[in-house]
Amino acid sequence: MSSNGESVVSQKKALQLLGLEELTGSLRIVTQGVVDGAAAFLSRLCLPAAEELGLALRDRISGWRARNAMRMLDRANKIYLSNEPVGTDRLSPRLANLAIEESSWIEDDSVQELWSGLLASATSIDGQSDENLLFMNLLKQMSSFEVSVLRFAVEKSSKKVIQGLAISEPFEGFLVKDLPSLLGVQDIHRIDRELDHLRELGLIGPNTGRGRGGGINLSSGTADLTPTPLALHLYVRSQGSKLSPVDYWNIPVLQDKATATVRTEKDFLEPEK
Fold it and tell me: According to a count of CB atoms within 10 Å of the terminal CB, is the N or C end of the chain lower?
């Protein structure tokens, strides 16, 4: 079959999988490559459940939402392929449905990229893994501004390893008057409330174990943007990677000189004498 013929078949398959056969006209601005990529991702990782996803979406998705979903799936396909998959991966229909539903409402590229990465890193050999449900539920609660703050905090902060786990060095001391230019939003009230929300989501705050003080400190006139370990995990998964944060950033593991008592499994299994 000619390449044109293959394209027609691929496009038809993609529209059927998403239940969008009747929206062909409103999808004209979506390039053929995007349609093909979306079809390839679903048919490779999520059949036969992909066809049921299409039936579920058919009655509630518009052309505008379909274009957004196609873009997200195409990007997820590219991320997935860039990781050199072994060909036996499968995707949980539950996570696929959640990612398609949420990303279909979003045009912002920076947020779409995170949905694509989370979907690409949600695969497993049997398709039963729901690890990324945690991260998807966090992302669905975040605004585009919060996503930009998360990126800034994670990418700019220094990281270290304690007890084998990655944490960020304190990323604080930003003057409140400098936050609008630093974060690209002029409304200081919005900055304050959205930093508070990131703190409540457990994504920013100190790593001291003494409370959750992320955001603006009114007494000092400064802000703490330190990303939490959970934020580091969310960022890594949203890049399409299944690596731990330690391995993703190749953080040096220094010799731990702590002298605290360590409790092992053996301590709990051996009967008392």
Answer: C
pLDDT of 6 reads 42
Q: What residues contact 134, with CB distance under 8 A and at least 6 apart? A: none
Identify whether the C-beta of residue 61 lies closer than 8 Å to the C-beta of residue 53: no
- Tell me the domain boundaries of the chain: 3-140, 145-248
Q: Is 176 exposed, middle or buried (0-12, 13-18, 19+ CB in 10 A)?
A: middle
Run of H or E including 55: helix 49-58
b/e per residue, 93-121, with b = 16+ CB within 10 A?
A: bebbbbbbbbbbebeeeebbbbbbbbbbb
Q: Which CATH class is domain 145-248?
A: mainly alpha
Mean pLDDT across the chain: 82
Rounded average pLDDT over 16-35? 60
Looking at per-residue confidence, does 18 or 234 come out higher? Answer: 234
Instruction: Name the residue with tokens 């392929």.
Output: 81
> pLDDT band at residue 55, thresholds of 50, 70 and 90?
low
pTM assigned to the model:
0.83
How does strand 165-168 pair with strand 222-224? unpaired
